[in-house]
Amino acid sequence: MKLAEIFDTRIAEKIDPVIKVGEVQDEAKLASEISAYVVTPTIEKYIDEFLEHYTDTFRLQTTEIGSWISGYFGSGKSHLAKILALLAENRSMQGHTATKRFEARVPPAAPRRASILRNLGRVDQSDTRVLAFNLNTLVDSKTTPLPRLLLSQYYQSRGYSSNLLYARVIEQEIDRRGKLDALHNQIAALADRPWSDIQKNPGFYSKHLYHAACQVAPDVFANPEEVAQALKNAGHGDLYNAQFLVQTMLDDLASREQEVKKPARMLLVLDESGQWIEDDAGRLAQLQALVEEAAIKGQGKIWIFVTTHEDMGAIFQNARALQADMKKIEDRFRFKWSLTTENIELVLEDRIFKKNLAGRDAVEETYDAAPGVIRGLGELANTSQRLPNCERHRFVSLYPFFPYQVHLIPEIVKCLRSKGGRGEQLSGSTRTLLAITQDILRAGRRPYLRLEVGETVPFDEVYENLSGEGEVSPDVRRELSRIEEVVHSATPLTRRTAEVLYLIREITYVPRTIDNLARLLVESTSDDLPGLTARLQPELDKLIAAKMVARIGEEYEFLTGERRTFEDEVATVATGLKQQDREAGLAKHFIYDPEKKKNHLHALLGFETVPFKDAEFEVRVSMDGTLALKNGCIELRMFSPLAALGGLKVPDLEDQSLRADEQRTVFALCDRIPGFDQDLNRFLAMREVVNAWKGDPHKSEEAHRLAAEREANDLDKLERKVRDGIKASIRQGHVIFRGSSRALTPRSGQTPGETLRAELATFWPTLYPKFEKVPVRIAQEQKAILDVLSGEKNLASDVKALRLFDKSGALDPHSPLLDAIRIFLATRQNKKERTLGKDLLDEFSAPPYGWDRNAVRVGVAAYARAGTIKVLIGKMPHTNPADPTLQKALRDSREFERVELVVEDSDVPADALEEARALLMKLTGKRKIDETPAALHEVMEELGREKLARAEKVIDWAEPANFPRPAAFDEGKDAIEDVLALANPVHRVKEIHARADDLKRGVDAIDQASAFRDKWGMAFTQLKTFAEQLRAIEHLLLRGGAAKTFLREYDTARTGARFSETDVWKQIQGAKASADLELQSLLSVWRDEARQIVHDALDRLPAELKQQLLEEELAKEMAVPLDAFVSALDLETDPARVAALPDRARRLIDDLGAAIQQEVEKRAPMPENNQPQPSPRREIRRLRFSDVAMVRRIRTDAEWDELLKKLDERVRALLKQFEVELD
């Protein structure tokens, strides 16, 4: 069966692949576009959602008035926008409405068919007009503001001229009078041309336009000059912004609703808006302003469709717009639809590849004859992005194309355009996926429609189609077309191979291996992939020799322009690399990079520890002398395939491993890998060229872009190839230990690193024979150390596993850890060698022990608590387990390494024991105390607990009472706590002897403070309150008086914390009594002064009232505040408030004066209109005698005269700007 016979479509008839939203005049074409529309499941969902929401808004208001449709070229976004607009408008086309025609396109079994038909039936409830066009194709669209652009198109859609001013000022107003046709007829008659011609170029016919306006509206325009003036005025005054445009449309819609008696809507379709916006934030802002205005003012009357190649987020990102702006416009677009490859594939199946029954059977029979072979031919291998598979249904649906080809074609066209610097600007051309596939079948290199079923389309046909339409640059097209002339022994297959390589050069997720190239060139389902691969290899070699193709690892790349120059430089650098360059490059890029602190070898191996008996041992790892992992007592010394290629052999390493200083070293020799040095060479050379090109300011932008691409793609692939070579060499390598070697034998599923790690673990029993004595790992070592130091009974399970203590809680002499620590320290001590913490840790963490360093520190803590080990920190001994300094030194691993450890003597000197006993006898009053550390330990425990209890009571009272504690009190309390913290009797007795002075003074201070609290606690609180009261009026106290003396004595006692001393307390109490007498006298004076001030004022009040011509009856009312003040004088007891009574009395008198003035002003006659207004009241300034003279005591008449003179000068100076109030 021929291919032409399998299709159920007219495959030979060319389908117009481009839908233009603005073409709405041809009813036959519109009907054809609806009839040919394929309603896929995705489209079905989109249409149902739109119709449901759109018809709901006939009765409900909304601000969600937009649909944003995105998709790559040929995805059908313009077609979808146009179909929705036709359905909303529902015009009649050749006797049938758009909705009626569309009903037949909804599949009978579609889940949403009923909903769509129901909403289609509601469309006629509204009168909708559509204004659709491609924004990017309008004249001056990039330079004209969007509102002005749309207003002009809107007027033209109404039949107005393309001159915006004439349309706005003349035609719109005449249209409202119902004379628009008369105007156009008159213009046509005057110009002797049809209106359709005049409408496109009104400027040429301006004379006729002006005269016609005068004739149709003579009441407005008497002559053409008035028309011209009206247009000139409008040009200067009108502002065509989004508000104006929206309001114009809404006004027309309101008129339309009155005319048709149902809701009216306007639908704007702005096709290819993304190309119009480009990366211009200003244009995006114009679109946003239009949408926002239409949403807020229109409330569902104006709808906007926008189509773009990229989605809304990408458009905003390209224009560098704010995310907040995107959020605002996003809320206005209820629908944000994206048309994908899956959707267009369904369209292709229906419009082009749809098979008739016999054709489907023939294709299925071909597939079923060799399904595995066809899948092998029709699926590209090792792609990093999932491509459509070649299962039976897909193959049959898209045959004679393979499914992956349909997916790749749009990607390739997009890459061609972006690389050509054209971006998306060719949208609207005929190079849609539908057009490309149909053109190949109709007019490809081979006569496909005459071929038998089983033949397929190779991918070079796509190149042939695109190159003929200008998608391929002329230089590349010319170079590829001449391959058979310029490449030695070239064949058509050579050229086709180069064409396919060129097409997929930018599709980074498709490996350009020879197998995939063979699949791309398959011409029949009966092709043999290995045979085709064999045929391709010579062709690739020819292209490489001609420097048109380069091999990069297992992949091939087509070279053009800068790419060829780049490859030449890489080859030159690679040739000049020496052995030391390769070694240095391998070390830096695949072992350890000291500049970037990047450990490549660790990432490659995947391990840094070796397992042994449920523990993990760190291991030092190096390769070719470069250290990658630094921690661990055992070293894994590896030699790369580069070293193996240099002649290093297993016997050499066997001999080296027998040396005494290599007993803790395991050697690993990687196997030789053919071509490893060449791959490394190319990687290093390409890296050098990439860095040189990127940093060369004289290179072109294309060169910089190429260098970045090579770094991101090819360099990464080469790096992976070298890394894979190292892994393969490890997998085939040998391990050598103490003169014996063996080959690595990886298990199924094991990585090279896992195989090597497992092999290393077999040497650990030999390296660590004593490990099993203490195979414990301490998880929370800091808590464990604190628990051991404090004598915690409930230790963690891992600490218990160390067997530090016996059942009685004493140190277990049979503990392997403690025994080893004691012997090691004692041995070094006998040799007069100092032992630091680091020495101890290094000894027991290294072979043959391998013990946990944390466990060793916990063992030292146990010895420190028992008093067996003394810890020297900065040469100062620390033996108290509760000592924070000691605790920190043991818990901090770094600080522990610096401390010195000394095995402690277990005896107390006789003189120290006797002196400690004498001190305790004096402090306790007991005479019978045994002269043993244990007895002294017990007595001190009882004494200390009792004194600490008394001290705590004093502290609880002293802090809120603000009682200052003597220094001896706190020092004694600290000394008692330090002594009690020592659980070892020997250590406690030594501490008592060392802290004897602090203990004696401290106990006395605690007893003294405790007795003072019990007897004088309440009195001290009263004393403190009295002192605070005096402090508040200290500035008013008599100089040298008893109160001043008391405060001085009080401050002295507080500063020295001496209140609890008997003599001091008595002296303070006496001073308080004298100060209290003086204070009572002062309080009486201040009360009497205040009382006298008020009485004098009350006596003057009648005279003041009379002088101001006020009624005497006011005196009683005005005296009420002063009388109340006098009656309350004796109730005030707080010294600070009593001291302020005279000032309060003066303020009351000031208030009385103000009240009198207010009464005077009330009775003053209102000024007449011709009389001058009284001057405004000026600011008041107070004046005191202290402001004039420092000395206020007057002894002679001359002093009084001098004071009066100064006072007079000061008052007169103030009166120039203020009113003066004497105080």
What does this protein look like?
- There is one protein chain.
- The protein is α/β, with parallel strands linked by helices and 1223 residues long.
- The chain has seven domains: 16-142 and 260-354, Rossmann fold (3-Layer(aba) Sandwich), CATH 3.40.50; 146-240, no CATH class; 356-560, no CATH class; 577-757, no CATH class; 771-903, no CATH class; 910-1019, no CATH class; 1180-1222, no CATH class.
- It is built from 57 helices and 21 strands.
- The strands form six sheets. Strands 10, 11, 12, 13, 14, 15 and 16 form a seven-stranded mixed beta sheet that branches. A five-stranded parallel beta sheet has the order 4-5-6-1-7, sandwiched between helices.
- The longest helix has 46 residues, at 1062-1107.
- The chain is flat.
- The N and C termini lie far apart (125 Å).
- It holds the Pfam family WHD_BREX_BrxC.
- This is ATPase-like protein.
- InterPro entries: BREX_BrxC, BREX_BrxC_wHTH, P-loop_NTPase.
- Residues 819-899 form the Probable ATP-binding protein BrxC winged helix-turn-helix domain.
Strand content: 5-15%
- Describe the largest sheet: 7 strands, mixed
CATH class of the largest domain: Alpha Beta
Q: Which fold name fills CATH's third level, the topology of the largest domain?
A: Rossmann fold
Which class of secondary structure composition applies to the elements? Answer: alpha/beta
Unreliable sequence segments: 421-430
The helix content is 55-70%
Kindly give the count of domains.
7
Task: Provide a count of the helices.
Answer: 57
Arithmetic mean of pLDDT? 87
In quaternary terms, these chains amount to single chain
CATH architecture of the largest domain: 3-Layer(aba) Sandwich
Global morphology = flat
Number of strands: 21
